[in-house]
Amino acid sequence: IKDLLPRLTPILRNRHEKVQENSIELVGRIADRGAEHVGAREWMRICFELLEMLKANKKAIRRATVSTFGYIAKAIGPSDVLATLLNNLKVQERQNRVCTTVAIAIVAESCAPFTVIPALMNEYKVPELNVQNGVLKSMSFMFEYISEMGKDYIYSVVPLLEDALMDRDLVHRQTAATAVSHLALGVPGMGCEDAFLHLLNLVWPNIFETSPHVINAVMSAIEGCRVAVGPGVILQYVLQGLFHPAKRVRQVYWKIYNNLYIASQEALVAYYPKVHLDKQRSTLHELDMMI
């Protein structure tokens, strides 16, 4: 294996797609099962070669590449691989950056998130749009992958998401909303409701955005928060705007209410406001008696 890997590196540059895909798969297998036979410096050399593979047109090649990054990070530790990937967020090409964010998320999944989150949050300080968006996208993918493991990291990332949700740039807010959605769906019923209520307060003002991508992300975040904090809380937010004088406001609020009703119809019963139609007689509803 020690002699095989250096000879595989030139083959990675082969322009034939099937050759590229299979050689990356083979490198991944070696990293997964026999990483100790090869030195860390050789693995880092391969990491730099693999960055070029993220530009490939074929999706299978890109998918094999990001998986291989995960195996290599597991073999030699995440710090060097992560530094290489974070540096790659500065490139202009979008496809390259998106694949890099997926690779960072896979590294977080295979080496435990606490090895990656501090470096990601530190990278967010770089005052460059692409880098910050890349960090947020990595967070989004990471929380999608690690699911309930995210419970331990919610309070660490809230300040970062808070900053992104208040940013003037639309894409920042969109990506942060997607991250909130994945984070919320991973940890329902784990006692993190206070953090999600805070994030919901920051997501909510974006419901009037007109860009379709942003509004999809915001609705997804609200749906995630519904799972995390319960439909009753979302209903209290929605009731304020259902009968607003402006049609544009009513449309958005009714859209949210309809989604809420479809998803959690039976859970809303206890939260509907009481309407006292008869002032003379006092009535006691069955639900009140049961409670």
Keywords:
single chain; 15 helices; 291 residues; mainly alpha
Shape: elongated
Instruction: Tell me the radius of gyration.
Output: 24 Å
User: Distance between termini?
Assistant: 69 Å
Q: Please count the helical segments.
A: 15
- Compute the number of strand runs: 0
Beta-strand residue fraction: under 5%
Main sheet, how many strands, which sense, barrel?
none
SSE order: HHHHHHHHHHHHHHH
Structural classification: mainly alpha
Low-confidence parts lasting 5 or more residues at pLDDT below 50? none
Instruction: Summarize the amount of helix as a percent range.
Output: over 70%
Mean pLDDT: 85
Descriptive report:
With 291 residues, this protein is mainly alpha-helical. Helices cover 71% and strands 0% of the residues. It has helices at residues 4-12, 17-33, 40-53, 59-76, 78-88, 94-111, 117-123, 129-146, 154-165, 170-186, 193-203, 212-229, 231-239, 247-268, 286-290.
Give a topology summary.
Layout: H1 4-12, H2 17-33, H3 40-53, H4 59-76, H5 78-88, H6 94-111, H7 117-123, H8 129-146, H9 154-165, H10 170-186, H11 193-203, H12 212-229, H13 231-239, H14 247-268, H15 286-290
Helix pairs in contact: 1-2, 1-3, 2-4, 3-4, 3-5, 4-5, 4-6, 5-6, 6-8, 7-8, 8-10, 9-10, 9-11, 10-12, 11-12, 12-13, 13-14
